Every structure is written in C-alpha cells, then in structure tokens.
Automatic annotation (TrEMBL):
Domain of life: Bacteria
Alphabetic keyword roster: DNA-binding, Transcription, Transcription regulation
Protein name (record): DNA-binding transcriptional regulator YhcF (GntR family)
Keyword check for Transcription: yes
Amino acid sequence: MEFDNNQSIYIQIADTLSDRIINGEYKPGEKIPSVRELAAEVGVNPNTIMRTYTELQSKEIIENKRGIGYFVTPQALDCILQERKKIFFNKILPQFIKEASQLGISSEELKNHLDL
C-alpha cells in the first residue's frame, strides 16, 4: 500500500478498511484481519494498525470480541456513509463550488457533467 504524506498512515488505513466495507468486501458481522495480519499486509508496524482499529472502534465501525478478533459492526456501513457525506458537504463540495466559480463554469455546464 502506498501512503500519502499529507495524512496520517493510520487514517489512510482506516479509510481503506472503510472502503472495503462500503464495497462489500467485509460485511456486517464478518471478521476482519488481525492486527498482525493487516500490519504484514500493508507493511506497517502493528502499533499503527492498533491505532487504526482504535479509531474505527471509536466510530462504531468495528468491534473487538475478546479472544476472537475484530468484527464489522451491524451499523458500520451507515456510520461510514454518514461520516463521508458530512465530509463531502462540509469540505469537498464547497471547495468544488469555489473552484468552478473561479473557472467561470456555469451551473448549466455543471449539470451537463453531473448526469449521474
């Protein structure tokens, strides 16, 4: 895994795990890799993965079942989508609108490209 120097590694790994949950690679109730397994997979210190898992637990995306491992919570997908929508509407969209305005892009031009 390649990391961006502009963001903490543990956050980048948390985002990657969240992506996997959104894409259905990890389903609610399903076990995720152990700290050591994921550390070996992404090539980081296990302490970094522990910090990632602590972050995801605080957001109720994963839970630790002592002696068994870490599992995706039933509400994980909703938690992730809610947080990402908040980021989109509070950070990404305002920046996008500012950029479009600076480039003189009209709302009609945007509508033509936003046909989802």
